Every structure is written in C-alpha cells, then in structure tokens.
Amino acid sequence: MKLPANLKSKLHHRQAANALRQLPVYGNRLDFASNDYLGFAQNAALFDAVHDFLISRNSKTNGATGSRLISGNHSLYSETEAAIAQFHQAESALIFNSGYDANVGFFSAVPQRGDVILYDELCHASIRDGLQMSKAKSYKFTHNDPEELQQSLEKWNSKRTAENHFEIYVALETVYSMDGDTPPLEEIVLLCEQYNAYLVVDEAHALGVMGEHGEGVVQYLNLQSRIFARIVTFGKGLGCHGAAVLGSQELQSYLVNFARSFIYTTGLSPHAVATIHVAYQFLQREQATVQALQTRIVHMNQEIKRLGLQPLFVYSKSAIHCAIIPGNDKVRAIAQSLQEAGFEVKPILSPTVPEGQERLRFCLHAFTPLESISAVLERLANTIFQ
C-alpha cells in the first residue's frame, strides 16, 4: 500500500531542506564518527573473554526467553548488576535494554502528577520523550546555566507548602552528545541540596572517557553519594549494549514495579549481559587505554588552537568535539570533503540540532593516531579558510 499523502509530504519537506535521513553505508575511512571511544566494540580479546565467561557460568542460552519479571531474569543479571554497582559506588544498579529505555522508563515513572522537572534545554531526546510521557510538569532551563536553574528552583520551592507539597527533579547530562561540553556539576549539586531537589544525571558519554578509570564525571568529582539517580549506558565507551540506572535499593524496587520500558520488554540475552560484565572488567584494567583517549582529547584541543579553529568549536574536554557550521547544505559539503580525504566525519543537520546550529561532529578514540587528528583538522582549516 502507498504511503499516506500527509506522510509523503513530510518526507518531501525533509528532502527539500536537505535534511532527509538515510541509513549510511560505511566505507574504509578513519573513524571520527562512532561512539566506540575505547575501541571495545572491535576488541577481539574482549570478544573471546565474553565466550570464556559464558562457558565458565555454563550458559549456552541464546535468548532471555521473556521479560525479567517472567522468565528472563537469568543469573548473569544479578552478578553483573552487583559488579556495576560496586564499580560506580552505588547502592544498586538496574539494567535496562538501552539508554533510551532507561531514560524513558525513569522519567515516565518516577516524577508524579504535581511534581516539577527542570531540565537542561540540550538534554537528549530519550530524556525529553520520557518527560513527555510523565504526568509531572517539565520546564527547560538555558544550557549549563546554574543561575537560571537557581531562579527556577527558588520559584518552585516557594510554591511548596504543607498542604501543597510536591517534589522537584533536575535532569542533566555530564557530557552532551551534540556539543561534548560538561555542566558545572558541583555548583548544581549544591543548588539541588539547597532547594531540596532530586538530581538525575545521564552519564552516557562520560563512561569510559572521564575520570582516571573512565568511571564518569560524577565519581571523578566524588559526588556519587549526593545524586539521586545516575543513568549509565554501555553502547558508547563500553562498546556493547544496554544501560543501567544507579541509585538506592528503594529506587531499584520502584523501577521494577513501575517503569514500563523495563516491565514490558524481553530481557537482554545472556551473551549481551555477559558482554557488559566483561567490558567493565576490561575498563578497570585498561587504564592505559583510558589515558590514551584523554591524551588525544588534549591533542585535539591543542590542534584546534594551533589552526585558529577555536571560533568554530564548542570547547570540550570529552571525546566529542563539534564545529558549528550553519546550514545543512554547507555542513554537508564540508563533511563530504573530509570523507573524500578518508575521514569518517558526520554532519549533524537540523532538525536534529536547531536551525543555524548545524555542525560537524568529531568523535575521538583511544586508537586514533595523533597525526590523523592533526590531518583531519588541517583539512578542515584548508576547506574553511580557502
């Protein structure tokens, strides 16, 4: 059957704006696009270790066979969740099938009707979708702006009375996926404590990248005991799949009972959970790999400065570096120039980012040669300044 006319019209509109999304076919170019920051996704030793781990647990099952509340809660789940909680110095960890599922499940279930959620305007789509499903009211604040957040906290806190009590939640990320920057987390923690608000932090792009052992920004700053919930995802720095919500045992119990994206889905396979477990083992002993990535982050910033590209780039101390190049047509053309030179660099187009904020997104990896970072930036500078 043909696509309905109104849906065809939306596709035509995207195409006319040079913003039509299509599934890419990757060539043999140097990777500046994937989230595999530590190279774990292609690590043969990790792959073999997962097999050995499964054999040692006598696990030869291909699938979970059902939701975790029915038949899918195989023994590897509890072992892996305990290891994750220990690594992150959390009371508990609850594995979800993906970062999207974790954010949607948390934000649609935890804040209640009458509660208020204050969220950074650049929060990921998974958080925003969870907010839309929530019965609580949600309000954005300017990106990484603690002063505006404080004004909102003060406003809503003043409305709380004994007769009209409600909770306030604050949602943000420690590394923003389309900017690569980080918030003033210590200041925001103090504000949440001052105004009795629950802070929820997404560490998707910080795990494996930030901190001495890649533990993330929260632990690097020693704030783990002062944050209500953390969401860590495994499809970036750990090179596998899934996510976990870190928090108290009571929070875990609540999510098991009320988070629909956890309850009504088939669990991850034993192999997927084993891969998470082994990836954490590798993370703890691959400190040199984490340091190699951090060396490349420093080199990236030095080269941006050397080549006079600072006005284009959002300053970042993470593995994500973005050059703002307004206009879908222009950013596509520059990305194509970099790709023709052998660099897999992706343009990020509107409406994924706001119109006028289109950008090139460079993802760094522990395995990227330093000279290749210099080369791709020199190519960019030659293209921009020619």
From TrEMBL:
<protein>
    <submittedName>
        <fullName>8-amino-7-oxononanoate synthase</fullName>
    </submittedName>
</protein>
<dbReference type="InterPro" id="IPR015424">
    <property type="entry name" value="PyrdxlP-dep_Trfase"/>
</dbReference>
<dbReference type="GO" id="GO:0030170">
    <property type="term" value="F:pyridoxal phosphate binding"/>
</dbReference>
<dbReference type="InterPro" id="IPR015421">
    <property type="entry name" value="PyrdxlP-dep_Trfase_major"/>
</dbReference>
<dbReference type="GO" id="GO:0009102">
    <property type="term" value="P:biotin biosynthetic process"/>
</dbReference>
<dbReference type="GO" id="GO:0016740">
    <property type="term" value="F:transferase activity"/>
</dbReference>
<feature type="domain" description="Aminotransferase class I/classII large">
    <location>
        <begin position="30"/>
        <end position="380"/>
    </location>
</feature>
<dbReference type="Pfam" id="PF00155">
    <property type="entry name" value="Aminotran_1_2"/>
</dbReference>
<keyword id="KW-0808">Transferase</keyword>
<dbReference type="InterPro" id="IPR015422">
    <property type="entry name" value="PyrdxlP-dep_Trfase_small"/>
</dbReference>
<feature type="coiled-coil region">
    <location>
        <begin position="283"/>
        <end position="310"/>
    </location>
</feature>
<dbReference type="InterPro" id="IPR050087">
    <property type="entry name" value="AON_synthase_class-II"/>
</dbReference>
<comment type="similarity">
    <text>Belongs to the class-II pyridoxal-phosphate-dependent aminotransferase family. BioF subfamily.</text>
</comment>
<dbReference type="InterPro" id="IPR004839">
    <property type="entry name" value="Aminotransferase_I/II_large"/>
</dbReference>
<keyword id="KW-0175">Coiled coil</keyword>
<keyword id="KW-0663">Pyridoxal phosphate</keyword>
